[in-house]
Design goal:
Blueprint lengths: L12 E6 L5 E2 L5 E2 L2 E8 L9 E5 L37 E5 L14 E2 L4 E2 L9 H15 L4 E7 L1 H12 L4 E7 L7 H15 L9 H4 L4 H15 L2 H7 L18 H14 L4 H13 L10 H5 L3 E7 L7 H13 L4 E6 L13 H18 L1
Parallel strand pairs: 5-6, 5-9, 9-10, 10-11, 11-12
Antiparallel strand pairs: 1-4, 2-3, 4-6, 7-8
Helix pairs in contact: 1-2, 3-5, 3-8, 5-7
Length: 378
C-alpha cells in the first residue's frame, strides 16, 4: 500500500527494561524478568525534554499508533490523530506509544518464553494489575531519558492506564486525558469479558493454555470473543447505518450461515483478529480491567491533592460499553479532590469506537487541549 500518512514509514523498537537479575516486581508479589517492551516514537524530543506525550493503547492495540511499517496493510491505529498538522502535532510534540506488558506485539507476555522452563509461559504467566502497566511505562521513560511528561493520553483501557498513572505518580504528568474509559467496571462489563474468556478457554484447541506447544490456536474461541466484543464497540445507530437488515450478497436462501451483511462484517472482524492477537493476551489484559478500581484505595487522591494534574475527561453520548456515567464518576472523584478537570461528552453515533475515529468535535477538543498543554507546560 502506498504511504499516505503524514508520518510516512516508522519503525518499532524493542527495549529490555528488566532482567532476571533486576526483575519487574509486580503488584501481586511475583517477579518477572527479562521484560522486553516494543515501542514507537514520532516527532522530535525537545532539547529540554519537555514536549513528550505518552499514548496508552486499548485492549487489543499495540505500539504501532501512527505511520506505516514496510509492507503494512494499514496505518497505525491512531494515525488520524497523530502526525504533522494533526491534533497531536508531531512537529511540536514527541509522541511515545508502547505495547503493553502481557501483550503479544513485541512486549513480554504469556506467549513469551519463560527462561525458567524454556517454553511459553502460558497460564504460568503472573496475573497483572493496572499499576504494573504504569510501572513498565515509567521504566520506558527512564530508558528514553525523560523525567516528566507534558501529557498522557489514552482511550478505553488506555484511559484507565492514564488515570492510574496520574493518581500514583502525579509528579510525572503535567496533563492527563482520559477518553471513553472507566474507573470501575459494572457487572455488565465484567460479564461481557467473562463470556469472551470462556469462549477462548472452552475451545478444544486452548489446551490449558499450552496451545503453542501443540502447534494450534484456539481460533474458534478467539474469533467468537472478538465478534461479541465488537458488537459492544458500536452503537445501535452505527450498526443500522452501516448494515441495516441488508442481506449478504451471496445468500441464496435463508439458513444458519451468513445471511446478513452484519453477520459477514462480524465474521470478517473475528477472522482478521486471529492474524494479529494472541488468546492468552486477551485473557490477561481483559482481567486487569475487571479488577481496576483506583478510587477504592483510601489514599487514592492524596498524591494529586499535593501535586495537581490538569485532567481532560471525555465520553461519547452513544457509547454504551463505557457510558457517559463512567466518565462522570471519574470527574466527580477528581472534583472532590479539587483537581483542575475539564469534561466533554461528545455527540457521535459510532459508540465506543468513536475514540478511534476522526469525529470533528472530538478532534477539535483534543487539538485545543494539546495547544493549551504546550503553552502552559513549557
Amino acid at each position: 500500500m502506498a504511504d499516505t500518512t503524514p508520518l510516512g514509514l516508522v519503525e518499532t523498537q524493542v527495549a529490555r527494561l528488566f532482567t532476571a537479575d533486576d526483575p519487574l516486581r509486580l503488584t501481586g508479589g511475583a517477579t518477572l524478568g527479562p521484560v522486553d517492551v516494543a515501542y514507537e516514537t514520532y516527532g522530535t524530543l525537545s532539547p529540554d525534554r519537555d514536549n513528550a506525550v505518552f499514548i496508552c493503547h486499548a485492549l487489543t492495540g499495540d505500539a504501532h499508533a501512527a505511520g506505516f511499517h514496510e509492507g503494512a496493510k494499514r496505518p497505525g491505529w491512531w494515525d488520524n490523530l497523530i502526525g504533522p498538522g494533526r491534533p497531536l502535532d508531531t512537529d511540536r510534540f514527541f509522541v511515545i506509544c508502547a505495547n503493553l506488558i502481557g501483550g503479544c506485539q513485541g512486549s513480554t507476555g504469556p506467549s513469551s518464553i519463560d527462561p525458567a522452563t524454556g517454553r511459553a509461559y502460558g497460564l504460568d504467566f503472573p496475573l497483572l494489575d493496572m499499576a504494573d502497566f504504569v510501572a513498565v511505562h515509567r521504566a520506558l521513560l527512564a530508558h528514553l531519558g525523560i523525567d516528566r511528561l507534558l501529557a498522557a493520553l489514552g482511550g478505553s483501557l488506555g484511559g484507565m492506564q492514564v488515570l492510574e498513572w496520574a493518581l500514583r505518580y502525579p509528579e510525572q504528568l503535567t496533563s492527563a486525558a482520559v477518553v471513553a474509559a472507566s474507573s470501575r467496571l459494572t457487572a455488565q462489563n465484567i460479564a461481557f469479558s467473562a463470556v469472551a474468556r470462556r469462549a477462548i478457554m472452552d475451545d478444544p484447541d486452548f489446551r490449558d493454555g499450552r496451545y503453542l506447544e501443540a502447534g494450534v490456536v484456539p481460533r474458534l474461541g478467539l474469533r467468537t470473543a472478538r465478534m461479541m466484543a465488537h458488537i459492544t464497540y458500536l452503537s445501535e445507530d452505527a450498526f443500522s447505518e452501516k448494515f441495516g437488515r441488508t442481506p449478504h450478497p451471496d445468500r441464496d436462501k435463508p439458513g444458519f450461515g451468513i445471511d446478513f451483511a452484519v453477520e459477514s462484517y462480524l465474521d470478517h472482524q473475528g477472522r482478521v483478529f486471529l492474524e494479529r492477537f494472541d488468546a492468552l493476551s486477551y485473557l490477561y489484559l481483559s482481567r486487569v480491567m475487571d479488577y481496576f478500581d483506583p478510587f477504592s484505595r483510601p489514599d487514592a487522591v492524596a498524591g494529586i491533592a499535593a501535586d495537581p494534574v490538569r485532567f481532560l475527561v471525555m465520553s461519547f453520548d452513544t457509547d454504551w460499553r463505557f457510558s457517559t456515567d463512567h466518565s462522570r464518576r471519574i470527574v466527580k472523584h477528581l472534583e472532590h479532590a479539587r483537581q483542575p478537570v475539564s469534561f466533554r461528552d461528545i455527540p457521535s453515533h459510532w459508540g465506543h469506537d468513536s475514540f478511534l475515529l476522526p469525529v470533528p468535535r472530538y478532534h477539535d477538543t483534543l487539538r485545543a487541549w494539546f495547544d493549551r498543554a504546550l503553552r502552559e507546560g513549557l
